[in-house]
Amino acid sequence: MSSTPSLPRGRFAPSPTGRLHAGSLLAALGSWLFARHAGGEWHVRIEDIDPPREVPGAADAQLRALRRLGLHPDGPVLRQSTRGALYARALERLLDQGDAFVCHCSRSALAAHDGIHRHCVAGARRRDPSIRLRVPEGTHVAFEDAIQGHVSEDVHAVTGDFVLRRADGYWAYQLAVVVDDGAQSMTRIVRGADLLGSTARQIVLQQRLQLASPRYAHLPLLLDARGRKLSKSQDALPFDEREPVAALASAWQLLGQRPLRTTPTDPHDWLAMASAAFEPGRIPRGPLAATHNVADIGAP
Length: 300
What we know:
The protein has 300 residues and is of the alpha/beta class. 32% of the residues lie in helices and 16% in strands.
């Protein structure tokens, strides 16, 4: 079990699949504000465990964009691609406990069950099976989200036995994020509401690995003019990289915050003022419409 940190800890964990878009900026600033307002630390973790989806150079471009915005992590940037041994130890523990099992079921085999795995399909064999977490009937999770309110889920009914290591050999997001949040002693996870549905599974994993569960705050989704999640939008919004304060101020407004008394021109000065003025209770549940000032930042 991870030790309790002396200070609150939060993190921003982008996947290197493209430019740092407006939704990412909202998550980065939101997580930074929660951590700094509480007098805590803020860390950055690159979630690069899905090579087929990654864009070469995207991670470095995202980090450059964060620096331009004045968002500097407390400590070195962690990259999940270097942490396979840690995930392997956690997986071995789950297998030894009987909490995980080898699964030969394919997506097509589970289609008749709406893609939800509750038991293995008879006779299914794959040369490269996946490994799943066993989620028995009655597995229920409830938690209080700082923004979205009370959340309750029957994990067996909603997701069933979920993947920990994929059939292609890559680590599943759920396992990697739980192991890393535990290893880094994260106390508050602030991220987009599109990941709210992953939280119950992560809490189940935390319980099986005897890790403390952090508190959660899921920020409202940022949508484009067509009502699509901005990260999936094909309509790139213009952004002047010479105006980082304008992007921060637009994200601040989307987070429902009161206008600052003054508008410093330096992003570090702006962030210091915003940290002191931050009111978490003003954040809307969403969804939100993007503005042209909160657009793609940097280039891979």
